[in-house]
Amino acid sequence: MYLKKSSLLLISALVCAVSVIFAVVVLFVTSNAANPNFTPPPFDGNAVTGTPVLDSDSGYGEADATAYKVGVCGKIATDNNNAFIYLNNLPENNVWIKARIFDTNGEIIGESGLIKQGEYLPYVTLSRVPEDNKLTVKVMAYEPDTYHSAGAVTLDAVIKEDQQ
């Protein structure tokens, strides 16, 4: 009887140990595995080195996203389907940024490539200009080289009426 209990206890301990080892291995493998569905975004070929110089009518301002600051227009001029957002990745940042532009229904209607610190992007091409002239600009930040997220900030903007 004692042998049966100690054998059962030994088997149970072995099963627990194997389970713990298996869980640790699975956690290690999945936490270190690269996301096969992630494709790093390309850098935007229209990026310009420097800081944009704009008039006060552009509604240009800087948003503090804690880990970084970004400059962007709140009153966006358009020409054809180009939205002049003047997305600015300030030189003191330690991130690369990109923007997605949404209409009021949450549909993506424009997207930039990455821009480095000390660069700005004059415009993003839209698939269409929304009839209500309202946009949401979502700026996403990535750690250089690793592409780990450094957070995002969402800003509301409008298309200048005199541009339509």
Give a written overview of the molecule.
- With 164 residues, the protein is of the alpha+beta class.
- It has one helix and twelve strands.
- The strands form two sheets. The protein has a seven-stranded mixed β-sheet, with no helix packed on it. A five-stranded antiparallel β-sheet has the order 1-9-6-3-2, with no helix packed on it.
- Strand 4 (75-79) and strand 5 form a beta hairpin.
- It is elongated, with a radius of gyration of 25 Å.
- The mean pLDDT is 87.
Structural class, from helix and strand content? alpha+beta
Give the helix level as a range of percent.
10-25%
- CA distance, first residue to last residue: 90 Å
Uncertain stretches: none
How many helices? 1
C-alpha geometry = elongated
Count all strands and give the number: 12
Question: Can you list the strand order of the major beta sheet?
Answer: 8-7-11-12-4-5-10
Q: How large is the radius of gyration? A: 25 Å
Order of helices and strands: HEEEEEEEEEEEE
Portion in beta strands:
25-35%
The chain-level mean pLDDT equals 87
Largest sheet: 7 strands, mixed
